[in-house]
Amino acid sequence: MSETFVIDPGPRAGVPVAGTNALFPVHRIYCVGRNYAAHAREMGKDPDREPPFFFMKPADAVVTGGADVPYPPGTKDLHHEIELVVALARGGRDIDPAQALDHVFGYAVGVDLTRRDLQQQAKDLARPWDFGKGFDNSAPLTALTPAAELGHPASGAIWLEVNGQRRQSGDLRDMIWSVPESIAFLSRYYELCPGDLIFTGTPAGVGALSRGDKVRGAIEGLAELVFDIL
Ligand code: MN
Question: In the chain, is it the N or the C terminus that has fewer CB atoms within a 10 Å radius of its CB?
Answer without folding.
Answer: N
